[in-house]
Amino acid sequence: MIRQIIWLQLSFLLLLTVSRVVFFLAYSPGYDEHFSNDIIDAFLLGFRIDLALVSYLSILPLLLVIISQVVKNRIAPTTLQGLLRAYFITVYLLVSGIIGMDFAFFSYFNEHINILFFGVFEDDTWALIEIARKNYNLFAITAGIALYVWLTVVYVRKVLSATLPIASRVKAVYQPPVYVALILLVFLGGRGSVGVFPLVKLIPDVSSDHFINALPKNGVFSFQKATKQYIRSKSGVYRLVNATGYEGRVDKAFEDFLQRDNIDREDLLKNLERTTKKESRLEKRPPHVVVVMIESFGAPILAYQSPQFDILRRLKKHFDEDILFTNFISTQNGTIASLEPILLNVLRHPGGTTFGQGPELAISFEQAAARVYEKNGYETSFIYGGDLSWRNVGQFFSRQGFMHVEGRSDIHNAIQGTLDHVYGAYDRYAYAFVLEKLKQAKKPQFIFLLTTNNHPPYVLEPGYQSKPLLMPDELKAHLVGSEALFKQRIKDYQYAVDMAGGFMDEIKNSDLADKSVVAITADNNTMEGVMHYDDFLQESKQVPFYLYLPPYLRTNAPDVTLPGSQKDIFPTLYNRTLSGVTYRAIGSDLFDPNVLHCGFNTKGILLSSDGAFASGKETTPGQQECAKHYKAALAITETLVTLQK
Fold this sequence. Notes:
- The protein is of the alpha/beta class.
- It has helices spanning 2-27, 36-70, 77-109, 125-135, 138-159, 175-191, 210-214, 219-234, 240-243, 250-258, 280-284, 314-321, 335-344, 369-374, 393-397, 408-414, 427-440, 473-476, 483-508, 536-539, 569-577, 621-642, and strands at residues 273-275, 288-294, 323-325, 328-329, 379-384, 404-406, 420-421, 424-425, 445-450, 516-522, 545-548, 564-565, 582-584, 599-601, 605-608, 611-614.
- The strands form five sheets. It has a seven-stranded mixed β-sheet, sandwiched between helices. It has a three-stranded antiparallel β-sheet with strand order 14-15-16, with helices on one face. A two-stranded antiparallel sheet has the order 1-13.
- Helix 3 packs antiparallel against helix 5 (138-159) and helix 3 packs across helix 8 (219-234).
- The radius of gyration is 28 Å and the shape is globular.
- It starts with a helix and ends with a helix.
């Protein structure tokens, strides 16, 4: 039976290797000879990681066979055979399923399964089914899965067909050393290393290229790590202070963050307070403030904008005329994971769940952006094109200073003829809803809009005329995966940003132009999953930060190349729209050249004045300063959240 088990496991190890080859062929951006050694090293490392997985899967059957021999085959061979068949069929199908989900996850996020995976189970199930139905051939996929299951069952049953007792294969005198040797081999295989740490505990980089470093990783171990993070985050136990090296000395985090020693140690949060300049023009004419978060509005593809590839459409004019910060990255890779930190003026917990789906759901955060405006005479509204039950946004943001929290049904009630797609109202109607609020306003408005288009299944509003998008060869050379699906995606992308451009046209062609401030950004850059980048660290998390200021609020133009991220949005807005107001925030005013500017994405990608870098791999003084600033900001975020529980 040992021989059959070894044969089965070697067959499965070969299958795992084949799946890695398929992964490479499906998602590789294409490499020249310069990376050939790195790719070979990645496959070798991947083989060791797969061997570790197969070794773990060997523990239970090996123990079962040894126990059977120790009790002199009192377990009937047919019973042992049945147990082993059931075990291997179950684990092979389970592992294969996880690896298949990992493939799908990577195609969208350009990362192996992480904690964002669990958001699938907290999302709209019917919407996800509709996405799968429209984007994929479900019949072919189901048939393929059924065939794979059948082949797995047949193969396992065939290999484990022998019932010959073990004793007839291994003489009694040799059995103890043989079993000890097998146990040692399984132990070494599972550990994958003779170093201090097991291989899967600390998987080394083999290249300077992001994809090549992702190639060896195994979906099962990624899933295991994500599960641990998810369970830990759901428990409400945060250890960021410890992880960042500030355990027992949180005051040091504030010193590092503020870059000074003279801090208030009695009231640490008071150190985060800043006050905007007194401005009589703001006191006399407080502007409306509108912040728009466009779904998946990644910036790198905008480099290919041209008359033939007019992906911006009506928004291009406004990008050209107004302020556009170009060295800017998202907080995280998911919508809710970026949305909450922006509106709470904090950072995203790298390994945590969302605030609205954790123990923080009931907290009313004092530093929340809407609360700052609410306290200063603004009527505040959170508007989402979808349903407010999604990720508890209705419950959570109603506690964060928003006087009105409105979703799809409110848009339908206010805008006659509103049409829907899977995730909510088409963006055209969401913008119409915002415009109506602004036109009817009796007091200054603070409005935050989260749109829903440019999201799978990438369905355009009926009657919308897309402008032809002729992809340049340079863009085609950067595509990964299906070109047909990419073309479908960019049509919806074009629609989403065109609707934003139409909104800005309405603003500028009315009296709202003289009394409105508009900021536009994105939740994340999901184009990362279907494109590869020449400079992954610099480009992969890039999103726009566009800012329109009415003429009376325009002063000196900022340096739009300063490094920044979404933590900086509201400090920048406060200093343009509020007079003599004190606020707390992790971010900085991007118009202020005298403070340290850094961009933070919680996948460990940071921006500095010396360029983008991976956390833990900073080399220049500018990068080292931003790395220290990031760690301190994480510790301060945890402290700020904890003190408000």
